[in-house]
Amino acid sequence: MASESHHKENLHNLQLEDEGQHRNPSEVKMSQIVVPCHANHCGELSIGQLLKWMDCTACLSAERHAGCPCVTASLDDIYFEHTIGVGQVVNIKAKVNRAFNSSMEVGIEVSCEDLYSGRHWRVCQAFATFVAKRTDANKVQLKQVVPCTHQEQVEHSLAAERRRMRLIHHNIMQDLLNNKTLQRSISEESHDEDEALSTERTRVESVELVLPPHANHQVNTFGGQIMAWMENVATIAASRLCNAHPTLRAIDMFHFRGPSQVGDRLVLKAIVNNTFKNSMEVGVCAEAYHGDEPLRHINSAFMTFEVLDEKGRPRPLPPIKPEPQEGQRRYQEALARKKIRLDRKYIISCKQTEVPLSVPWDTSNQVYLSYNNVSALKMLAAKNNWDLSSKKNKVSLYTVEESQSLCFRVEFEMEIPAQRAFILLSDLSRRHEWDQHYTLCKLLLRVDEDDFIYQVVTPSVSKGGKYQDFILLASRRPPCDSGDPYVIALRSVALPSHPPTEEFHRGEVVCAGFTIYEVSKSVSKICYYNQTSPEVLPYISTDIAGLSSSFYSIFCACRQYLLDNIISTSAFTPSVL
């Protein structure tokens, strides 16, 4: 009886815990204890096995949301922070962040647990894209994800921006390879021919027959299995270069270009593309054929390996000598991908407070700076601890203080279509018409149709002081779905063509911008955000302290500016002055 009473008490505690804790309907968890058959000869979990578990968990999450079979379309870049040993437990959690028409983004978190010490630590995070495949002829239209928690709202919002990055991933690489500065730096690189190793010694080719155990419930080759086979041949190629056991540190995006079925022969090829002091890039591809048919390209990926010494420090690697033509092409592309990886890690992987404000802008990192710009504003807007500081005639000023950061939000509603307000507020060259702090705003560079770089000049707060100037990246985004806001994000960047001058004191903006919600067809809710920097704080400190309401007069001027231009139908097409 005592045992039964104790069991009922535990069940009651679990029910109370579940009631107080939200569980995403699409969330799926998997826990696996690592046994020797999962590990390599160093007693560490094979990354190929981990990829299989990650893909399986993510697929189950996608199918739970879609209510129909789903296939892996891509897996974003992964950085492995730690290895996992035999006897430790791998905990994987996957949930759908956002659904689009027939595809959805699934977020995957992997952590490790030591059963003896009770310690937990993060191993990696990844984002996978899955596509719903109905068995009937009806067109797939996925239901929308409804975020409930603060974190879910952030991920739901950022998923649209990550999707945008995936769609232009190929263009980034091509633009970088066409960059003359990069081509010059590649041609200037030289290695001692006596020390350089031929890449031909690292070439690996292996064939696998796809059997029923390798297939999913749709009789297609399981995406995780293909990734595991690719990791296997890539590891062999890396081992041939260094004559040691390499450690996989990162994988560039897996992108599935076509399906494979039971009975296919899968041809896996790998070769070292380049070495960089302490790391090497291995290119790997998977192709399939059945019978006499020609090879079909299934997947490609690029994996970064390190070789660690006895103290766990990366060992230096020998330079390689690429083969003519194809080998030289792979060599150059590896250099370009390395630059992209460094830019991405530098800009995106760090916390906002750890990223230097004015990151140098160039064509290789423009998409990641843009992503960081928009995501920072969305995360600022998603904060749930805003305090109302003052309110005057329906114009509200909110603040939030966190450690050494002070953020503010100005919010008001007015009768103007949201799209029209978005067009007018996107054009920073007209901001001086309503904002007294903008003396001049000159368009320096049109990056693309949604991103622009401006020079902004503002008067000095102190009498007789220097004017300030800012080099700002403005990124504008229309809604991805109904209910999403229009977004105009601003952050400082460094533009080599416009260095600081003696004429102005160069200021910096951490994060600022607008979100514009459609309340109705004719009414919009407009919110302005700013994460203050030392250069911005003097302009609004009296408002925050409640000693002034200048913010009210500025946003009254903004409202009047919008009303005065509400009937214009001209589109926002700025030109460089």
Number of helices: 11
Based on DSSP secondary structure assignment, what is the total number of beta strands?
25
Shape: globular
| Coarse structural class | alpha+beta
User: pLDDT below 50 for ≥5 consecutive residues: which ranges?
Assistant: 1-20, 349-356, 543-547
Beta content comes to 25-35%
Average of per-residue pLDDT values: 84
* Percentage of residues in helical conformation: 25-40%
Distance between the termini: 84 Å
Rg of Cα set:
27 Å
Largest sheet: 11 strands, mixed
Subcellular location: Cytoplasm; Mitochondrion matrix
Protein name: Acyl-coenzyme A thioesterase 11
Function: Has an acyl-CoA thioesterase activity with a preference for the long chain fatty acyl-CoA thioesters hexadecanoyl-CoA/palmitoyl-CoA and tetradecanoyl-CoA/myristoyl-CoA which are the main substrates in the mitochondrial beta-oxidation pathway.
Pfam family, one: 4HBT
Textual characterization of the structure:
- InterPro entries: Cytosol_ACT (IPR040170), HOTDOG_ACOT (IPR033120), HotDog_dom_sf (IPR029069), START-like_dom_sf (IPR023393), START_lipid-bd_dom (IPR002913), Thioestr_dom (IPR006683).
- It catalyses: dodecanoyl-CoA + H2O = dodecanoate + CoA + H(+); butanoyl-CoA + H2O = butanoate + CoA + H(+); tetradecanoyl-CoA + H2O = tetradecanoate + CoA + H(+); hexadecanoyl-CoA + H2O = hexadecanoate + CoA + H(+).
- It is an enzyme of class 3 (hydrolase).
- This is Acyl-coenzyme A thioesterase 11.
- By secondary structure, this protein is α+β, with helices and mostly antiparallel strands.
- Helices cover 29% and strands 31% of the residues.
- The protein is built from eleven helices and 25 strands.
- Strands 15, 16, 17, 18, 19, 20, 21, 22, 23, 24 and 25 form an eleven-stranded mixed β-sheet that branches. The chain has a six-stranded antiparallel β-sheet with strand order 1-4-5-6-2-10.
- Helix 2 packs antiparallel against helix 6, helix 3 runs antiparallel to helix 8 and helix 7 packs parallel to helix 8.
- The radius of gyration is 27 Å and the shape is globular.
- The N and C termini lie far apart (84 Å).
- The relative contact order is 0.08.
- The N terminus is likely disordered.
